[in-house]
Amino acid sequence: MSVQIRNNVHVAGNGSATMVFAHGFGCDQTMWRFLAPAFAERFRTISFDLVGSGRSDLSAYDRDKYGTLHGYADDLLEILDAFATGPVVFVGHSVSTMIGLLATIKAPERFVAQVMVGPSPCYINDGDYVGGFSREDIGELLETMDANYLGWSSSLAPAIMGAPGRPELRAELTDSFCRNDPEIAKHFARVTFLSDHRADLPHSTVPALILQCSDDLVAPLEVGRYLHRHLPNSTLHVIDNVGHCPHMSAPTESSRVIEGFLARTLR
Amino acid sequence: MNGALPGGDTLFEHAACALVVTGADGVILGANATACTWLGYGEEELVGKVRMRDLLPVGARLFYHTHCQPILEVQGSVAEIQVNLVNRGKERLPVLINIARRQADGASFDHWALFKAADRHAYERELLAARKAAEAALEARREAETRLQAANARLSAADRRKDEFLATLSHELRNPLAPMRSALDVLTFKLGNSAEPRLIQAFDRQLRHLTRLVDDLMEVSRITQGRMQLSRATVELTALVRSAAHDLAPMMAAARHTLHVHVADGPVLVDGDATRLAQVVLNLLANAAKYTPDGGTIELHLACVPGMAEIRVRDNGIGIPTAALATVFDMFSQLEPALDRAKGGLGIGLALVRGIVELHGGTVGAASEGPGRGSEFTVRLPLAMGAACPAAPEQDDTPPASVRILVVDDNQDAAETLTMALAMFGCETRTVHTAGAALDIVAAFRPDVALLDIGLPDMNGYELARRLRQAPGGTAMKLIAITGWGQQKDREQAQAAGFDHHMTKPIELGKLRDLLATEFPGR
């Protein structure tokens, strides 16, 4: 199967270097719409959907392969093989920051920089480590997902819209955003929120920008500080923002910080 | 506006849903009275102090951040998010939330509408619980299936190892048998009559027996491992079946069984391996002989039914319990405790039969009316390509021909009529009226059959029978006793004297003819 179809890969922009954007849990590449265009003038930009999310090929979702983030990291490297030119800057949000981190460990030569938006190596509190959540909280999240997927889900959306024979209409339905296959989403939630990549941090030497929100429930400030301490070649920048998605709610500020980081790192 | 309708403020304050406005940072900027009532706070306690997300339990808060917020950013609204709110009294209120993002004076505000969803919530929880139960059941079944598959795989592996073991075992057992056979032959030759012949014979018999067991075992192993090669050719079954019957005559005689052979008119042609097919008939006959008490009756039939050759072996032996019929062809079925183990054996003879028959594209079945009521085994083999059953003869009463028969009866009339009848059947006959005359003539005439009256003037028929057996060719001779009494005692006496058959006066010629046809088929 082609990597393009599997990951619904979109390439835009021009440049001798490549920027690849990987979305976070629960959503899809649409979330980069406010940020990625700013870089398309100077970079070749690649955005894609993680397998199981958005408009990726759901039939490629293999619970074993995607039972850890390594499966996604392997996909990322395949996408770069197929579409990247020149040096690569990885930009990941939330769970994808760890996917990128694993890829930089597997193939450090492929990357010149990694931008981590709202990263967390481990969501669950563990002794002195503050991840922000308990195991019970994650169980409650899964329950909430269940309750909300029962009423409506991506599989129902085309039928409700009454246009199953016209997929192009579906493509235009902006409200299909963040509506993923319930079963896959639940499995992905488990893999995401139960993952623990703290031990991997010291092995990633690719220069990293940790873009941390000042008020983020998902990835609290302590997590950003922890990352900064354990990632060998990292810069921490706290952006004044409430929430977990500064690339959406504060795109201008976010891109300015990223530009600055890249200017320093790639000079 | 109609004065009976509530004013806008009342409609807002006491709407059937809770209405809340928040700023970009999520802090509540306004709430209607319904919201305050549901949440248990005064408006002044909420506004500027509490964020809506603080009212969500942690899991729902996480969901809000990873799901609702991005949708709000991209779409400007979310609809029908189902969550619990935690009110001041720490009660959980199931609600459906709609949020619309509005811009005013360069700032963005979120308008929240909250609807009570307790019933819906309860109902959906039930649905969820039902789904989870179904999933758990499915998972349990999957696990059970997986375990079953694993068990099957283990059994298959064990079965394969058993087959391999048997193949190796039979091969290894066979190796020492050949030199033992040679050594025995040398011993027999060297020692000749000086050795104890009974010891040598016992050794010889047991060695043959052991060799046959090992050979059977090896061949069954070959079949189960798919390594048996058939040397196929067109095989004519009538000759093959007769030859097999002939080969087992000593075994039948040793157990004083009577073997009736009924063979269809040939040719009955199948495509197969003559040696293996002979083995099938031999095994079935040996099996019948083994499981029939001495002095039994065994029938071997070969018939041609459209498209098929049918071989049937029937005995009046110990029979097979109904429950064992299904497994009688399985290897080691003899080890079933339900079956009489007194006869011993590995129980592979019938397994071999089935294996060979199936390799020929045929079928084999067993039937029995139960313990003590005999058994019948039926083998069906497809006829060779282009072969058909021979046309039935015009008449069924083809007489047996050229059988030499000696008639001994002191009643001249009886002897004469009998002789005439036999001549009519095409037999060559000699008639004498005394035992002495019979003994005089037997060496020269070499009869196939001797019909003896028991009440002779010079010697009784039993004594004559014993003497005839001693004469040249006497062991192969068929001796038929003719007496005036058909009582069990008479039959037993005749049998004890070495008679093969017993007939009662007056002789029914039809019966005699059938008997001869059975004993000398095709003559």
Automatic annotation (TrEMBL), chain A:
Keywords of this entry: Hydrolase
Hydrolase as UniProt keyword: yes
Domain AB hydrolase-1 stretches: 19-253
Keyword Cytoplasm in annotation: no
Domain of life: Bacteria
GO molecular function, one term: hydrolase activity
Listed transmembrane segments: none
Residue ranges of coiled coil: none
PANTHER family the UniProt entry points to: ESTERASE-RELATED (PTHR43039)
Similarity comment: family membership: Belongs to the AB hydrolase superfamily.
Protein name: Alpha/beta hydrolase
Native organism: Pseudoduganella albidiflava
UniProtKB/TrEMBL annotation, chain B:
Compartments, as annotated in UniProt: Cell inner membrane
Coiled-coil intervals: 127-161
Leader sequence residues: none
SMART domains referenced in this protein's UniProt entry, alphabetically: HATPase_c (SM00387), HisKA (SM00388), PAS (SM00091), REC (SM00448)
GO molecular function list: histidine phosphotransfer kinase activity; phosphorelay sensor kinase activity
Residues that bear 4-aspartylphosphate: D453
Cellular component, GO annotation: plasma membrane
Enzyme superclass (EC): transferase
Catalytic activity, EC: 2.7.13.3
Domain PAS stretches: 11-56
Reactions that this protein is recorded to catalyse: ATP + protein L-histidine = ADP + protein N-phospho-L-histidine
SUPFAM superfamilies assigned: ATPase domain of HSP90 chaperone/DNA topoisomerase II/histidine kinase, CheY-like, Homodimeric domain of signal transducing histidine kinase, PYP-like sensor domain (PAS domain)
Topology term for the membrane: Multi-pass membrane protein
Primary localisation category: membrane
Superkingdom of origin organism: Bacteria
BP GO annotations: regulation of DNA-templated transcription
Annotated keywords: Coiled coil, Kinase, Phosphoprotein, Transferase
Domain called Histidine kinase: residue spans: 168-385
Domain Response regulatory: 404-520
Name this protein carries in UniProt: histidine kinase
Source organism of the structure: Pseudoduganella albidiflava
